[in-house]
């Protein structure tokens, strides 16, 4: 069982990121910059494939990394992570221990401040619990993803029209395909908590993106997701926007996403 870290980054001018992240395994690095080139080299006897691409978009970067990987186990990664020294052994051990798991999510601790609270026991994730997962916690069997033709939705994520939710949509697709997702209370990395590349407060773009995200997860249940979010999360945004306004913006996001999908379908039929 071999493992690769799939790193999404931007505007790197050298290869020092490998040391900064404490990468001690094979890796695929997608560096979105003003260049299109590729290089392969060894770092401490580990194979690093460094791909420079001029296109933009986090989900595009993730998809290219998965496509370029040749590993059995892939770990989704960003450039603000620092891996623990024995992450390779830890991740492999969990996939050995739970052979029926297609995806395993792990723990990541914040450096500057607390990242999140974690459960202390192993548990299977479902449609609701998977919505709390961050992309950098995810490791998966590549064959399970490729074999089921699962990709990150390129309408979502930093650099796309809708700025959030790409990992939640990804995991929803996995569950819809019948894949098994497991959480284990095992730490694999520390995370620098800096300014978000997409979160600029509970504003118009946030709620439009949220509505689109829920619709991408399930067109049938989108309205249920939207309404429950307004009811349950009101305390988070009550000082910024009214419930009615939040609901209206999420419905706009739902409509915009559906129109976008229809337009893509029309183009596919035409060409």
TrEMBL record:
This is Glycosyltransferase family 2 protein. SUPFAM superfamilies: Nucleotide-diphospho-sugar transferases (SSF53448). Residues 43-129 form the Glycosyltransferase 2-like domain. It comes from the Bacteria. Coiled coil: none annotated. One of its GO terms (molecular function) is transferase activity. CDD domains: Glyco_tranf_GTA_type. Keywords: Transferase.
